[in-house]
Amino acid sequence: MNKIQHRLVIVVRADPVICGHSVEARNLAEAARLRGFDEVRIVTWPIERLQAAGLPLKPLETVMPYSDGIFVDRPAPVGDYKVPDGRYLAGLVGRLVELFTDGVPTVCMSLYLSPHTLAVAEALTVARSTGLPVNVTTIAEAVGSDVTNVVKHAVEEGRLGAAAHILSAYLSQDVCVAVSEYTRDLIVGEAAKVDAQHGTRYAPQCEDRIEISYPAIDSSAYVGLADADITAAVEARGLTRDGYVMFLSRLTEAKGVEDLIAGFEQSRVADDPEIQLVIAGRGPQAEELKAIGAASPLAHRIHFLEDVGDAEKPFLMAGCAAFVLPTKPRPEFIETFGIALAEKMLAGGGPVITTVTGGVGEAVGDHALIVPVNSPSSIAEAINTAVLETSAAERRLLAVQARDYALQFDRLAVFDKLFDRLPRAALAA
């Protein structure tokens, strides 16, 4: 067995059994293997804990396998049932300590500050206390909800300790990045509130340290799809090419699906019995949205798909007449980038319709039809434009322009830019 010379550890909420930044972890892992890392370890939570948390898990049988050299570690809990949450965190930290002290030069990246960057910071403290050799370089990526859900609440409640815990752990890492300018500004703004309340100096450090690293997407899964394969995938779902409006994301109130259904009803495509509405995804609002769809006068043309896998998704995106994600800000969630939108732009097909909530504007640039939040009538107008008023030649041109923009999010481009920020010693085999 060859000795491991260079390892990447990625600490994330879930390996890709949910959408969004879990898929980013997969893409960074695959890019690391292509860029010469001998081994990648994705350290995450046991499936049963993810299920208990109510996360919208993809069916495991639809998740594509990793390449050779990529392993998923799901540390078992440590201790007894009296400390239910701490048991799993102890298992996570313990596994990281083992990886940090086995003599392998390691880069460790954490996605989500809470709890993953906190776990990495603690594991490093423990690893160094063992007296064993520790050769670890760290990257912490703030996704956004880790700030809105934890730091923001701590600031609102005047809880210095909770806010300081996260911000200090974040700034203790070798490289600090955020997934968008919006997210960076959000962190600096919340840090400034902590400083104003408590006399600390987190905001200047965040302003100086945090750089942008957009989410990594496997563009090869979306670019260059064969027309025949797109048509076959679409028809396998009982649909027709350019004959449906599509949504694909988590089914939560923040994604605006109810507004989309209302907009579909109000649009002129409602008069065309051939145009369908496809809502693909899983999430906590699924049953409520299905009930809304069932009560619609167009219920027979509204289709909910819960089993769209990684392999099928690009083809359904490429085959749609328009892709609509009318995301809107909610107290519990704000879209900090918009990975599904960038994926759709890479796949081609009909125009993207969305809002500019949070970091969405960075994901789509000038290559989407923008509607206000909470505006079904505006969604209806945008659907009319995309489906009924855009010629085939215009659609092809818009698709090429959108794809060219979205290629900046290719996983190798993102990986190279991110890892160029590391000290040369961290990248030496």
Portion of residues in helices?
A: 40-55%
Terminal CA distance reads 17 Å
- The main sheet orders its strands as 3-2-1-4-5-6-7
**Shape verdict:** globular
Question: How many beta-strand runs?
Answer: 13
Separate helix tally: 18
SS content category: alpha/beta
Radius of gyration: 22 Å
Strand content: 5-15%
Low-confidence stretches: none
Average pLDDT reading: 93
Sheet of most strands: 7 strands, parallel
Give your account of this protein's structure:
It is built from 18 helices and 13 strands. With 429 residues, it is an alpha/beta fold. It has a seven-stranded parallel β-sheet, with helices on both faces. Strands 10-9-8-11-12-13 form a six-stranded parallel β-sheet, sandwiched between helices. Helix 11 links the parallel strand 9 (276-280) and strand 10. The chain is globular and about 70 Å long. 50% of the residues are buried. The mean pLDDT is 93.
